[in-house]
Specification:
single chain; about 375 residues; D-Maltodextrin-Binding Protein, domain 2; 2 domains; nine-stranded mixed sheet; 12 helices
Amino acid sequence: MKKKVFAVLTGIALTGSLLAGCGGKSEPAPAASPAAGGQTAAVQPEKTLVVAGNGATVETLMKDEIFKKFNEKYPDVKLSYVSGVSTEIVAKVKAQKSSPQIDVTIIEGGEQEAGRKEGLWEQLSDAKIPNMKKVLGDLKVSENSGVAVNYTPMGISYNVDEVKAKNLPVPTSWNDLAKPEMKGKLTLSEISSNFGRSALIMLAYANGGSEKQMDPGFEKLKTIAGYMPTFAKSAAQLQQNLQDKTALYTAWTQARSIVQADAGLKLEFVIPKEGSPVVPNVATIVKGAAHPNASNLFIDFLLSDEIQQLYGSKLYYNPAVSVKLPDDIAKKLAFDKAKIVKTDYQVISDNTAAWIDRFNKEIAPLTGK
């Protein structure tokens, strides 16, 4: 199988690859003015900023640490956080297009691309976000419509102790999810979720297809559907199924797997031999956002070494810039970069609605059969 992989940047270690209401426009920020020596004075943020992103541990880190650190630099900015999954956030931004209520979103790459096609994001520049220059080249976002702030690889996680005790297969291929031994021991997301969609795409790759030719993936998923009572509707459901041991295997990210392992669930994460995509989390500024100065400053802050290290140490996301992580964290986040499959977000975005329709017609009715 021919794979498109991220180029490994020479000399750079990738290890250390979205409403609460704020209606209406805020007061304008003071205009920047020329300073001595012909330099431009520091940009002044507006007094409000609304950020949308994932919930759970991501929301906790944002509110408890990142917001507080940002306020140490900009104490007059009132920060609000809107939690939700990436698809919901994009839908909210689209619904509010004529009067944006959110300034900054931090969403998964596939959903960010869908929003780009809808014209939802401002174009970012390193003149206003200097730390963009540090972001690893393979994480570049189309048309600078956003900037990756971290990433994590997709793969398969399994319960080490239970798999060993029951003499079950240790997964090495995406096709292992279709082995008969998986029946009653597997949980996967619906393909409206990035986890389920990525698994479907990689099942296509494992059987001679790709995101441009999905028939092999759908055929394999028909078998897998019969192994489960239902497809999970959320990451929380996947997590619960693993915790109560109604499932011993799932397809999701390395970051999720490590967080659960830290919580006492002994999971092993593997990238199958056919490879895996990475899931970047991409920061955007909503087109027409009420607080553009604060938005640019906040995204730049997310790309600072301090916050990049927090993403690695607290959430187990790989930093989007080259930073030094503690040795134990770097070891946890290490994976074979040569196995990364660089999927085409535009192709995925263009076809997701049709795939979901096909999934609902051909795959979902087969669960539990």
